[in-house]
Design goal:
- By secondary structure, this protein is of the alpha/beta class.
- 33% of the residues lie in helices and 18% in strands.
- The strands form 6 sheets. Strands 1, 6, 8, 9, 10, 11 and 12 form a 7-stranded mixed β-sheet that branches. Strands 20-19-18-21-23-22 form a 6-stranded mixed β-sheet, covered by helices on one side.
- Strand 13, helix 8 and strand 14 form a beta-alpha-beta unit.
- Helix 2 packs parallel to helix 5, helix 4 crosses helix 5 and helix 5 packs across helix 6.
- 41% of the residues are buried.
Length: 547
């Protein structure tokens, strides 16, 4: 399910003027470091080394680490009293970055009493840019983890005394020689942790937690850089929901699991190692008074009957429990209705409604692009309270209607309209009267027909299109409006055997034949496309491709 990762990612550089121990630390790293403008680390990691791209004085000011991986911005919560400033835009390896978004840091430390001195435990809690910065739950959990992580470190380190574990890597054993122990905990989304998982483990899927050791026994430093724990809040939210506890409970479980990896436990190497790590997880959780089973035990239960998949398909990754942590990378969604938002009964499902509301809550503007008339689209969306100021459609909002033949821009202003040729419309109306085949003309926000028919009524009662007004003659209909599209309504068999073959030839250069449903045949101007309407609206709104 996960492997500990040993790599020199996001190592922290300490402000050399903070305190004497940190000054020694900074100088030791400076002397040991291999400087490179674009650090490159081999995969898999074999020869341990320190490589940094840094800027700033070697004696004064803040040390600045280059961006992590392909970049990424972070907020910082907690940490020692030293300053850490990270740049999230670099291409090389380095520390968790603050980038353009900046960072917030709250000082936090805990001291363990020793025989002749105190051991300082320092924890930094970081929030990756992909998570929403206005989510109170994430901020609350981050604040809670400041104390939780140090308590877990304290108990885990004390558990190493007189340890009789047979499978644990004992590189970290006597912590008494250190003055400070540092740990970083990053909360991120699935996309970010999947990138890490792919890059460092060659596993192209999201996971729940990754541990990255930063301890280098060969360097005799006063500070033990324990390492970094990366937790996907999205995956944690799903697992919390499926395992019946809170998100904080699940993140605590993942924290314990990741911490034990950094202390040398590895459940992947053998059954005995798995058993030892599982027992240590359960003991640590119990002593901390935290809810839930250890991650190894939970994973075992999952494989023996739970619904949680070890490697879920990417299409199923976003469940309702974790959507609130998703920060989209775009600002606009252009969405069709029939066959997309709507089911076969022309109804919008609860899942689609919730998805739209979630997108809106993340600052995404949802714009309708449909074959329906605007009143028809509004009537459907009104059933789920998505019309008006708090919805996605109103008479003052942008949108694409009638297959792109009618486009509204800012404040609902009409910016494009394309009509059928009146002479061609006359020919189609006369054909409808002669063969007694129901026909509806779409003209802006209104619909017209030449005679009543149950199929014409169904266009309104089932598909929520405007109720068609019966006109007394073809001449009065053409004199009263401009027509954008025409729809024949007939049995599927007659549409296939009679209407479509006839009008495919009879339209000539006047129109195109479109069939979206078996019992309907549409006649629209040549080159009609919702995509063209969307492009017009994008240009009108000044929307960039990235948005």
């Amino acid at each position: 399910m996960l492997l500990p990762i040993t790599s020199p990612h996001f190592r922290h550089l300490i402000n050399p003027i903070t305190s004497p121990p940190h000054s020694l630390m900074a100088r030791a790293i400076t002397l040991a470091a291999h400087f490179s403008p674009t650090p490159i680390f081999p995969k898999p990691w074999t020869d341990r080394m320190i490589s940094h791209s840094v800027k700033g004085s070697s004696s004064f000011g803040n040390w600045v680490a280059s961006g992590f991986g392909k970049g990424g911005d972070f907020n910082v919560f907690g940490g020692c009293t030293s300053n850490v400033v990270c740049n999230g835009g670099g291409s090389g390896s380095g520390g968790f970055g603050g980038g353009d978004r900046g960072f917030r840091k709250l000082s936090f430390k805990k001291k363990l009493k020793k025989k002749d001195k105190e051991l300082e435990l320092c924890v930094r809690i970081l929030i990756e840019e992909g998570l929403p910065d206005d989510d109170n739950e994430i901020l609350s959990i981050s604040e809670m983890l400041r104390s939780n992580a140090t308590e877990a470190m304290k108990l885990a380190l004390e558990g190493l005394k007189d340890s009789k574990h047979k499978t644990r890597d004992t590189s970290i054993n006597d912590v008494g020689r250190f003055e400070t122990i540092e740990l970083s905990l990053l909360l991120c989304n699935d996309e970010f942790i999947q990138t890490l998982n792919k890059e460092w483990r060659d596993e192209d899927h999201a996971t729940d937690v990754l541990s990255m050791s930063q301890h280098i026994p060969e360097l005799k430093l006063p500070i033990l850089m324990l390492g970094d724990i990366v937790i996907s809040v999205e995956t944690a939210a799903r697992q919390a929901e499926e395992r019946g506890h809170s998100l904080l409970d699940e993140i605590r479980i993942l924290l314990v699991h990741g911490l034990l990896h950094l202390l040398g436990f590895d459940h992947e190497i053998s059954e005995e190692a798995e058993e030892e790590m599982e027992k240590e997880e359960e003991l640590l959780l119990k002593n901390l008074g935290w809810k839930g089973k250890g991650l190894i035990k939970s994973a075992y239960d999952t494989e023996n009957g739970s619904s949680l998949s070890k490697y879920p398909d990417s299409d199923d990754r976003k469940k309702e429990g974790s959507l609130r942590f998703y920060r989209p990378k775009f600002k606009f969604i252009f969405c069709d209705m029939d066959g997309t938002l709507l089911n076969s009964k022309s109804q919008i499902s609860l899942a689609n409604t919730n998805a739209i509301r979630e997108a809106m809550s993340r600052g995404v503007q949802v714009i309708i692009a449909t074959g329906k008339a605007r009143p028809g689209a509004m009537e459907v969306l009104r059933t789920v309270d998505l019309v008006g100021i708090d919805g996605i459609l109103s008479e003052s909002s942008p949108g694409v209607f009638l297959q792109g033949l009618l486009v509204y821009g800012q404040q609902g202003q009409e910016i494009f309209r394309r009509n059928l040729d009146p002479k061609f419309c006359r020919e189609v109306f006369l054909y409808s009267l002669e063969h007694k085949i129901p026909l509806v003309a779409f003209a802006g926000d209104r619909c017209f027909t030449l005679f009543d028919h149950p199929r014409v009524d169904s266009l309104h009662s089932v598909y929520r299109e405007p109720k068609a007004q019966v006109m007394p003659s073809v001449e009065k209909l053409l004199a009263s409006t401009q027509v954008q599209k025409l729809i024949f309504l007939e049995s599927p068999d007659r549409v296939t055997t009679t209407l479509r073959p006839y009008w495919s030839e009879a339209t000539g250069d006047n129109a195109s034949v479109v069939q979206a449903l078996p019992d309907m045949l549409e006649l629209v101007p040549l080159g009609t496309s919702k995509g063209n309407g969307v492009k017009l609206l994008i240009d009108h709104l000044g929307v960039t491709p990235n948005e």
